Amino acid sequence: MVADLSQLVKAYDVRGVVPDQWDESLAELFGAAFVQVTEADAIVVGHDMRPTSPALSGAFARGAAARGADVTLIGLCSTDQLYYASGALDLPGAMFTASHNPAQYNGIKMCRGGAAPVGQDTGLREIRTLVEQWSEGAPQPPAPATPGTITERDTLTDYAAHLLGLVDLKAIRPLKVVVDAGNGMGGHTVPTVFAGLPLDLVPLYFELDGTFPNHEANPLDPKNIVDLQARVVAEGADLGLAFDGDADRCFVVDERGEGVSPSAITALVAARELARNGGEGIVIHNLITSWSVPEVVRENGGTAVRTRVGHSFIKTEMAKHGAIFGGEHSAHYYFRDFWNADTGMLAALHVLAALGGRTTPLSELVAQYDRYAGSGEINSTVTDQSASVAEVKAAYATRDDATFDELDGLTVTTPDWWFNLRASNTEPLLRLNVEARDRRTMETVRDEVLALIRH
Predict the structure, then answer these.
(1) pLDDT digits (tens, 9 = 90+) for 14-42
(2) What family name appears in the similarity comment (predicted)?
(3) Given the residues 86, 99, 290, 292, the one annotated as active site
(4) Strand partners, 239
(5) Which residue segments constitute the domains of the chain, with CATH numbers given?
C-alpha cells in the first residue's frame, strides 16, 4: 500500500489504524528500513496481545531477514520485556503495540542495541523516508546473497530474574495485592514476576484480549481504575496495581482505594535507588512532577535534574548525566540498571519492597512523598495555542514574586504555587498542571488560568 506516513510515524514511534493506515506489506518495509538504518546484522522482535500483532511482527521479521539480519522472535511480551531483550542481548529491537490505544490501532516502538531509543532525531525520520520511497515503487538496494534467519526465543523468565535481582524482596511481609492488567500484557508478565513472592495475588482482567472488553488499558484516566479501587477495598487488600496495555506503565492504588500520585511513587523509588547507590546519584524528573520529587532527592543525598516531558528527553538526560533513576507524572519510570529504559514492573517491585518492609499501610508510607496539592493534567481545546499562552504570560507578568521559564511550554512559579501550560503536539489542546502548598490556593490558581484560556 502507498501510505500517508505523516499520519503514521509519530515523534517516538509508529502508530495507526490497521488496515486503514497500514498493513503487513508496510510492516515488511519497516523491517527492511529498520535494518538498513541501524545497520544491524541481528535484531529482536516482540509483540502484544492485539489481534493484528502476530501477523504484523512476522511481516516486519521477514522484511528484516530479507535485508540480511538474523531475527529473534520473542513472541508475546510487555514493552519493557522487549527492552530487556534488547539490553541483555545488545540487539536493536522492535515492539509491536499501540499501548493503550483502542483495538483497531497498532504500532511499532523501536530501539537500538541496549534499548537506546529510536525517535525522529535518532533514526525514525530516515526509516520513514525509506518506507515512503519503497512504498511508492522505488527499488530497495540489492538483497544480500544470504538472507537472515528467523528463530524463536522465550525471554520471560530471564526478564523476571533480572528485575528481581534489582530489588530485595526476600524479607517482606505477606501482602495482598490486586492487579488490574486491563486485558493487556500485565496478564502475561505479572504471574511470572510475582511467582515465589509472599503475595496473595488477586488478578483482574488477566485474559489477554486486544479488544479490551472491560475498560481502556490506560490507568491514568480515572474511569479505568474504578474496578481496581473497588476490588482493593472489597478484598481488604494492601494495595492495587494497574498496568497499561503494553505494561510499561504502572499506576498504584492504596489500601483505601485512593490513587497514589506518580510523583509520590517517583519520590519513593528515588529515595530507595539513592539508598541502594550509597546515598548519592542523579535523578531525572520532568517539569510537571511535584515539588516533592526534587525535595526528596536532595534530602536523600542526590541531585535532581529537571527536563522536558517525554521519554526521549528523559532517556537522553539519563545517559548524559549517568542518572540512576528518572520519573514522569505519567507513571513512566526509568532505571539506569534497566538500560535507562522505562519499566513499570520494576517500580511496582520497589513499592512492594517498601511496603513489605514495614507494618504501616501504604497511605501512611506515601504521605511523606505527597506534600502538596496538585490539579492533575487539565486539557482545554483552543483555536490558537501560542496566542492563549501569550495571554496567560501577560496576565502574570506584573507579579513581582513570579518567575517564568519556557523549557517546555510556559512555567510560572511563585513561593506558594506553580503552573505549567503546554501545547499538545498532536491536537489543538493546551495542557495545564497546577501545584500549590494547599488545596484552596491550587484551586484558585487553576480557576484563574482556566478562565484566561477558556474565555
Answers:
(1) 999 999 999 999 999 999 999 999 999 99
(2) Belongs to the phosphohexose mutase family.
(3) 99
(4) 177
(5) 5-154 (3.40.120.10), 156-371 (3.40.120.10), 373-454 (3.30.310.50)
**Cα-Cα-Cα-Cα dihedral sign, residues 306, 308, 314, 316:** negative
C-alpha cell at 118: 529510536
Contact assessment for residue 432 and residue 377, using Cβ atoms and an 8 Å cutoff:
yes
pLDDT in tens, 51-88: 999 999 999 999 999 999 999 999 999 999 999 999 99
Minimal CA–CA distance to 15: which of 82, 74, 96, 73? 96
pTM exceeds 0.85:
yes
Give the three cell numbers for residue 232.
482493593
Q: Which amino acid is at 414?
A: T
Nearest to 34 by CA among 81, 84, 86: 86
Owner of C-alpha cell 519499566: 343
Distance CA 323, CA 119 (A): 20
Mean of pLDDT over the chain:
96
Does the annotation mark 263 as catalytic? no
pLDDT above 90 covers a percentage of the chain that reads: 93
Mind giving me the DSSP string for 392-443? HHHHHTT-TT-EEE-SSSEEEE-SSEEEEEEE-SSSSEEEEEEEESSHHHHH
